[in-house]
């Protein structure tokens, strides 16, 4: 069973492509600190985002409507991999049983231990998936963005939520109850297969997260996260690839299992070398290829 704490891991760390020949650092030296043991398999590279072509069609609704109409819900469902294969009539029927929900910044969508009775589709805004230790320390597993489905694992198993979801900014969501969602899956095999693909990707993300935490030092973990976020949320500018997520150093630390102080030190090192820059919480990667080569280095 896939722990719901790792739902939404489709993004960070899982989109870097298959294994391929290692590429080594160029004449530019990137500060990476001392390796802590272990090794990472060299990975292939698929290329960075291409301008603004990655804009999700779902974003045209962002901030433009206080509530989501039935027609809007049908159009939004059609843009997601899970529901896109459906015929217009099926989409209309599903939109008819769905409701909308608005969540303000820093508000919880659900908390660890809550009943898993609904599945959610993110229309607008970003949310983080986190778990909190008994000492109050957070670990952020991923950031959920428009077009993604969350809450499906607990819904399918009938188990309580095993992670907390918190809005990073005002969010608009579509909500489908468990009874309606299960009935929908029973009658739409293609959607059930698409859901299996989503779950398989998230299971792959769990494996990669555990491996990175065990074997990679902080610079490599942070470089991988920056690279993955650039692919998932990046936009090419004249200065490089800008990650269009406003993230604090503490949030970056939560994503890679490090303290804010350690993140600050690592980012300052890369800023001084011209690898990245940070402005008002937004990271721009100026030397993307070098940052990626860093993630492919192997330490013996």
Describe the protein's architecture and organization:
With 300 residues, this protein is an alpha+beta fold. The chain has two domains: 22-54 and 217-295, Orthogonal Bundle (Arc Repressor Mutant, subunit A); 57-208, Jelly Rolls, CATH 2.60.120.10. It has helices at 70-78, 88-97, 152-157, 178-187, 189-215, 218-233, 249-256, 260-272, 288-295; strands at residues 99-103, 108-110, 118-124, 127-132, 138-144, 149-150, 164-167, 171-177, 234-237, 240-243, 276-279, 282-285. Helix 1 crosses helix 2 and helix 7 (249-256) packs across helix 8. The longest helix is centred in the last third of the chain and has 27 residues, at 189-215. It is globular, with a radius of gyration of 20 Å. 38% of the residues are buried. Mean pLDDT is 74; it is low at 1-66.
Keywords:
four-stranded antiparallel sheet; 12 strands; Arc Repressor Mutant, subunit A; Jelly Rolls; 2 domains; 9 helices; 300 residues; alpha+beta; disordered N terminus
Number of helices: 9
Residue ranges: pLDDT <50 for 5 or more in a row? 1-66
Q: What's the story with the biggest beta sheet?
A: 4 strands, antiparallel
CATH topology of the largest domain: Jelly Rolls
């Amino acid at each position: 069973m896939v722990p719901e704490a790792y739902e939404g891991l489709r993004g960070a760390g899982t989109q870097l492509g298959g294994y391929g020949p290692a590429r080594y650092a160029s004449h530019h030296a990137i500060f990476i600190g001392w390796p802590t043991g272990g090794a990472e398999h060299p990975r292939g590279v698929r290329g960075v985002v291409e301008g603004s072509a990655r804009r999700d069609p779902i974003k045209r609704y962002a901030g433009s409507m206080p509530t989501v109409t039935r027609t809007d819900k049908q159009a939004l469902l059609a843009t997601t991999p899970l529901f896109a294969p459906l015929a217009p009539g099926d989409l209309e029927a599903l939109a008819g049983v769905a409701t909308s929900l608005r969540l303000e910044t820093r508000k919880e969508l659900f908390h660890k231990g809550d009943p898993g009775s609904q599945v959610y589709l993110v229309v607008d805004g970003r949310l983080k998936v986190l778990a909190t230790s008994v000492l109050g320390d957070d670990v952020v597993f991923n950031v959920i963005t428009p077009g993604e489905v969350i809450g499906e694992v607990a819904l399918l198993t009938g188990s309580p939520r095993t992670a907390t979801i918190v809005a990073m900014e005002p969010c608009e969501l579509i909500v489908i109850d468990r009874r309606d969602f299960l009935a929908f899956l029973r009658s739409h095999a293609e959607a059930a297969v698409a859901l299996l693909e989503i779950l398989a990707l998230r299971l792959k993300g769990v494996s990669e997260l555990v491996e990175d935490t065990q074997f990679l030092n902080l610079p490599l973990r942070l470089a991988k996260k920056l690279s993955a976020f650039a692919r998932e949320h990046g936009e090419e500018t004249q200065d490089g690839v800008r990650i269009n997520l406003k993230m604090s150093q503490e949030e970056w630390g939560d994503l890679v299992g490090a303290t804010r102080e350690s993140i600050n030190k690592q980012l300052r090192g890369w800023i001084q070398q011209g690898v990245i820059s940070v402005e008002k919480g937004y990271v721009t990667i100026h030397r993307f290829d070098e940052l990626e080569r860093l993630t492919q280095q192997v330490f013996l």
